Every structure is written in C-alpha cells, then in structure tokens.
Amino acid sequence: MEIKDNKSFYSFLESISTEEESTIFRGVKSKSYKLTPGIGRFKTNKGKEFSIYEEKTILKLFKQKAYPYLKIDNSNELELLALAQHHGLPTRLLDWTWNPLVAFYFAVEEDWKDFDSNDKSAVYIWRKDYKGQLDPDFDPFKIKRINLFLPNHVTERITAQSGLFSVHANPNSEFKSKNISIVEINPNYRGDLKKLLQKLGIHRGNLFPDVDGIAMYTKWLRTNIY
C-alpha cells in the first residue's frame, strides 16, 4: 500500500483500527533501510563486524563517559542499552512504537535533499506473535532468538514515543518475518504528512520533551526549513 495524500493516510489508519494490541510499528526515512540493528550497520575502528566483546566494550565506554550526565547508577544492561540507543549509540536494539502516528513521523521527519526517485519512506508493521517483557531480566548478549522488552522509561523520550525495543540475537543480520509488512509513503506527500501530524500533536516538541526538542520544533514552525 502507498500513502500519497490525506485520504489514503486516513484510510490506512481506519484499516488498522481493529488491529490486535500486539501490532507495533517502525518508521524509516527510506524503504531501503532494512531491519538491521545499528550495531550491525557499523564496523569497528578496525573495519570488522562487531563481536559481542566489542559490543560490551562500547557500552562500557558509554556508561563510563556518560556517568556525570545521566542517572545510570543501578541500570542493568538492558536499561543501559535502551538509554544508549536513544542517545545515538549503535546497539543490538531496534526501536518500535505502539503508536502508528509516531512511526509515520519518524519516516518523514528529516528532509531528503538527495532523494532517489525510485525510493520512498516507509513504515514497517509487525504483527508480532509473542509478547514483550515488562520486567526483563534476560542477558541481551546470550539470547538465542529475538526478545522484546518495554523499558522502565529511563528517559522521557521513550515514554512520549510509546516506545519498546526488539533485542536481536544476531544483530549483524537483517531481521525478516512473515508477520512483517510495509506501507510506503509517496515522496511528494512527505511534507504535507509532517504538517498533518503536527496538527494531530505528533511533532518533535512532544516526542522529544526537552529543551533541544522544543528548540527544533520552534525552528521548524517559524523558519523555512523542511
């Protein structure tokens, strides 16, 4: 399905209004962005794939250097991974949301100056067949299959974005499932959809409830940036 105008957007929302509570969403700027966790999209500073040892090392470095700024004294590895993920560190997590509007926002949030006419933004829809853990205690580096967990809202952003995470046993490989579908967004509609979502209360000021988020939202409102 392709979302190309307000009519098709509202039609899509109506079509998923009866979805099971287990359905979750992930918005991506380009449909070419596969479901590969961040750590699997980077190489080490020696040009190799990240091993578990190197994953743990980068997480330890984050905790050590972020300690003065973040409340992470008693965070377990899962909470620490979630916190690191939301501050831009590549991890074996993928972000998902219960809210399809949030997913659409992240699909169209950024300008696309070097747009490929054959490409489109997209939203992944995962009708998952197992539940996430509310109080997870598993070791993210020893799992044999994908696990889901709902963070203890270590940041206001996770709460605002209705967020949850998938934790990948093999983060260097693309995640595929028969329960995942994708809806595409026509590139000519990206800007109008972003404006519509703002009217629906889905914008950076609300999804990133901090000074940076408010500043970026105000900039978007009052300047000519995308």
From TrEMBL:
Residues annotated as domain FRG: 19-124
Highest taxon of the lineage: Bacteria
> What Pfam families does the entry give?
FRG (PF08867)
Protein name, per record: FRG domain-containing protein
| Species this protein is from | Lacinutrix iliipiscaria
Organism lineage string:
Bacteria, Pseudomonadati, Bacteroidota, Flavobacteriia, Flavobacteriales
